[in-house]
Specification:
Arc Repressor Mutant, subunit A; binds adenosine-5'-diphosphate; 6-stranded parallel beta sheet; Rossmann fold; single chain; 4 domains
Length: about 600
C-alpha cells in the first residue's frame, strides 16, 4: 500500500508538479486503481480531471474519457501534452491526420488518455475499434447529463449504458459537479454502476464571496463591481440576448472592453469571442447562459448575474465558473422582482408548448427556491450548502454580504414585521406571500376587494415598499422562525407561537436590507479544500505578476493554447511571491513539473532575474 502511495505521489509530482492530492482525489484515484466503479461528485474547481488523469499514468494503460464539450476536451489535451502526457481527443473537427495519429498512438500502447464526445463514440466503427484497445477504465465527465432530473439532460448520454455491455469488467467512473441525491441515484442506475465507491465532496466554494443586491442602476453596479477586480476575467450573465448587447455597449462607452455573447451570433463570431476570452485578449463578456459550458478559463474573478437565474442549480453552476484555480473571486447577483415574473412567463409558456405539466411545476418550484435565496438575510454559503443537502458548520463565513455585514438593520424592522404578521392574521392565514403583499401594498385588485380585504386595518400599510422588498422580509421572517410557510403546491403563510410573541411585542425581530457603496474586494474565507491560504500580493509583486502574465500570454499564443494551460494564476502568484531563482526552486512551486520546466522554465527564470 505504501509503495502504491509513493508511486502515486511521484507520478503526481512528475507529470503535474503538484505535491499533494486534494480531499477525495485520493479516494477517487484509489477506486480507479482498485478497478472499482465510482461516482464522484466534486464542485467545479474541485479537481475532478486529475482523478481520471492520474490512474492511467500510474498503471501505464489507457483511460477513455467521455466528455460533452469539444472545446474543453481540446484544452485538456493541450494541457496534458504540455505536461508530456500522451493524450488525444477525437471529435468531429479532427482531420484525417489527427485520426491516424490517434489510432497509431493507441495501437502502439503509448496513449494514456483518450477523450471522446458521446455522439462520436457511436459513430461508424469507432466502438468496435475501441473494443480492440487495451482500455483500463472509462471516465464519464458531466455525468448528470444522463439524468432527466438534472438541469442539463442530454439524450445522447443515455446510450452510454451500452459501454457496460461492450467493456465488460472495465470499471466506469462517473464525474459531476452538481447532483442532487435523486440525480445521483439516476446516474448509478443508468450507467449500471456495480457497487460503486460513492464520493461526494462539499458543495461549498470557500474561495467565492457571494453578494446579492437589488438591481438599482444596473450599469453603475456592474462598473463598480468590475472596478473591484483589476484587469480580471469577468462574466456578466443576462437573461436575454438583447440585454447582453445593451449592457456590453454601455460598458464600452464607459471605457470597459466588453463583448456580448449569445446563441444568436454567427458561429464564427462566437468561436472567435470564446478564443479571445480564453487567450486573455478579452476580459469582460456579457452573455446568456449559452456562454460557459465550454469555457474553462480558471482565473475568472468575477461572475455577475445582471438578473436572477431560474434555479439555484443554475446559479451554483454559473457562479462556479469563478475562481476555479482556488483564488478568491466574487459572485454578484443583481435581482429585481421582475426577473421572477419574466422567468415564470417563460417557464409557463414553454410548459404550454410541451404540455408537460409535471416538468413545469418542478421548474416553478426551483424558481421559488432561487427567489427565496435572493431575498434572505442569512449566510449565502450556508443557504447554498443546505440547499444541496449538506450541513454548514460555521457561524460566520466572512465571505458573503450577510456575514460581511453589508446588509443593514432596518430601523423600523420590528414594526414592519408586526404589520406583515398582522396582515396574515387578519386575512385568515389562508394565503400565499403574493396575496399578502397585495393587501399590504393596498392593491385595488378584484380579489382583494371581493374578499373585503381592502377594509381591514392592515390594507395598504406598507405601500411605500416594493413588492420585492416585502417578499424579502417575509422570507426573512420564515427563516428566523417567526412565521411558517406550509409545504405543498400552494404554500400558505401561517402564524406560530413565535409570531404571536412578536405581535404581542414580547420578542424583537430584525429585518435587514442591503446598504449601498461596497468597496471591499472578494475575500477568501478560510483554508478551503481547494486552495491553500496565501497572503495577498503586495503592489510590487502585483506588477511582477502582471509581467509574468504577459510572458505567459506570449508563450501560449506561440503554442496556440490558452494561457492557463501554460501555468495557472496560482503558479504565477507563487513566482511573484517567492521569486524562484533556480531550477530546483522553480520545481518547488505548485504546478511546475520537469516537463514544463524544460519547455519554458528558463524564460520565466529570466523574467524573474530581470526584476
Ligand atoms: P474540475 O474539473 O473539478 O472543475 P479541475 O480538474 O479543472 O476541476 O481543477 C481545477 C484546478 O485545480 C486546475 O487548475 C487544476 O490544475 C488544479 N488542481 C487539481 N488538483 C490539484 C492538486 N492536487 N493540487 C493543486 N492543484 C490542483
Amino acid at each position: 500500500m505504501q509503495d502504491r502511495d509513493r508511486l502515486l505521489h511521484e507520478t503526481l509530482e512528475r507529470w503535474f508538479g503538484f505535491s499533494e492530492l486534494r480531499p477525495l482525489q485520493k479516494e477517487a484515484i484509489d477506486a480507479a486503481l482498485d478497478g472499482r466503479d465510482a461516482l464522484v461528485v466534486l464542485p467545479t474547481g474541485g479537481g475532478k480531471s486529475l482523478c481520471y488523469q492520474l490512474p492511467p499514468l500510474v498503471l501505464g494503460k489507457l483511460t477513455v474519457v467521455v466528455s460533452p464539450l469539444i472545446a474543453l476536451m481540446q484544452d485538456q489535451v493541450d494541457g496534458l501534452r504540455l505536461n508530456g502526457v500522451p493524450a488525444a481527443a477525437t471529435h468531429s473537427n479532427l482531420d484525417a491526420d489527427g485520426r491516424r495519429e490517434l489510432r497509431e498512438m493507441s495501437e502502439s500502447g503509448a496513449l494514456r488518455l483518450l477523450f471522446v464526445a458521446p455522439e462520436r463514440l457511436f459513430r461508424g466503427d469507432f466502438l468496435e475499434w475501441l473494443g480492440r484497445q487495451d482500455v483500463a477504465a472509462i471516465a464519464i465527465d458531466e455525468a448528470h447529463c444522463i439524468s432527466q432530473w438534472g438541469h442539463d439532460f442530454r439524450p445522447e448520454y443515455r446510450r452510454l449504458a451500452e459501454l457496460r455491455e461492450r467493456f465488460e469488467g472495465v470499471p466506469i467512473h462517473a464525474y459531476t459537479a452538481t447532483a442532487t441525491p435523486r440525480v445521483r441515484e439516476d446516474i448509478k442506475a443508468q450507467l449500471t454502476l456495480k457497487d460503486p465507491v460513492e464520493l461526494v465532496g462539499t458543495f461549498d466554494r470557500a474561495e467565492l464571496t457571494y453578494r446579492v443586491l437589488p438591481r438599482q442602476g444596473l450599469i453603475e453596479q456592474v462598473v463598480e463591481a468590475i472596478g473591484r477586480h483589476r484587469d480580471a476575467a469577468t462574466i456578466v450573465y443576462c437573461i436575454s440576448r438583447k440585454d447582453t448587447e445593451t449592457l456590453s455597449s454601455q460598458l464600452q462607452s464607459r471605457g470597459i472592453e466588453a463583448k456580448a455573447y449569445h446563441a444568436g451570433l454567427p458561429a464564427e463570431e462566437r468561436t472567435q469571442l470564446s478564443a479571445d476570452f480564453r487567450a486573455e485578449r478579452l476580459h469582460v463578456v456579457c452573455a446568456t447562459v449559452a456562454f460557459g459550458m465550454g469555457i474553462d478559463r480558471s482565473d475568472v474573478r468575477l461572475v455577475v448575474h445582471a438578473a436572477m437565474p431560474k434555479s439555484i442549480e443554475h446559479y451554483q453552476q454559473e457562479t462556479g465558473r469563478a475562481g476555479r484555480d482556488g483564488l478568491p473571486s466574487e459572485c454578484l447577483l443583481l435581482y429585481s422582482g421582475a426577473d421572477a415574473a419574466k422567468w415564470r412567463m417563460i417557464i409557463e409558456r414553454s410548459g404550454e408548448e410541451s404540455g408537460d405539466l409535471e416538468a413545469t411545476k418542478a421548474q416553478l418550484q426551483l424558481l421559488t427556491h432561487m427567489q427565496r435565496f435572493a431575498g434572505r438575510a442569512s449566510c449565502r454559503h450556508r443557504s447554498l450548502s443546505e440547499y444541496f443537502g449538506q450541513d454548514f458548520l460555521e457561524t460566520n463565513c466572512s465571505a458573503c454580504d450577510v456575514c460581511l455585514n453589508e446588509l443593514e438593520l432596518v430601523s423600523d424592522g420590528h414594526v414592519t414585521a408586526q404589520k406583515i404578521l398582522s396582515a396574515i392574521a387578519r386575512t385568515g392565514q389562508r394565503y400565499g406571500a403574493s396575496y399578502v403583499i397585495d393587501v399590504l401594498r393596498g392593491s385595488k385588485s378584484e380579489k382583494v376587494r371581493t374578499r373585503g380585504h381592502d377594509q381591514i386595518p392592515t390594507f395598504g400599510l406598507l405601500k411605500q415598499l416594493t413588492a420585492m422588498r416585502i417578499g424579502n422580509y417575509i422570507d426573512q421572517l420564515v427563516d428566523s422562525g417567526a412565521l411558517v410557510r406550509t409545504d405543498g403546491e400552494y404554500p400558505v403563510l401561517v402564524l406560530n407561537e413565535a409570531s404571536a410573541e412578536v405581535l404581542r411585542g414580547g420578542c424583537e425581530v430584525e429585518l435587514r436590507a442591503p446598504k449601498g457603496g461596497l468597496d471591499q474586494p472578494a475575500r477568501r474565507r478560510r483554508q478551503g479544500g481547494a486552495s491553500v491560504e496565501a497572503r495577498a500580493l503586495t503592489p510590487p509583486e502585483i506588477e511582477l505578476f502582471d509581467r509574468l502574465r504577459a510572458l505567459r500570454r506570449e508563450i501560449a499564443s506561440s503554442l496556440g493554447v490558452p494561457p492557463y494551460v501554460v501555468f495557472s494564476d496560482v503558479t504565477l502568484e507563487e513566482f511573484a511571491r517567492n521569486r524562484p531563482r533556480s531550477r530546483a526552486a522553480m520545481l518547488d512551486c505548485k504546478g511546475v513539473g520537469p516537463k514544463k520546466f524544460d519547455s519554458f522554465g528558463e524564460r520565466f527564470l529570466a523574467a524573474l532575474a530581470d526584476d
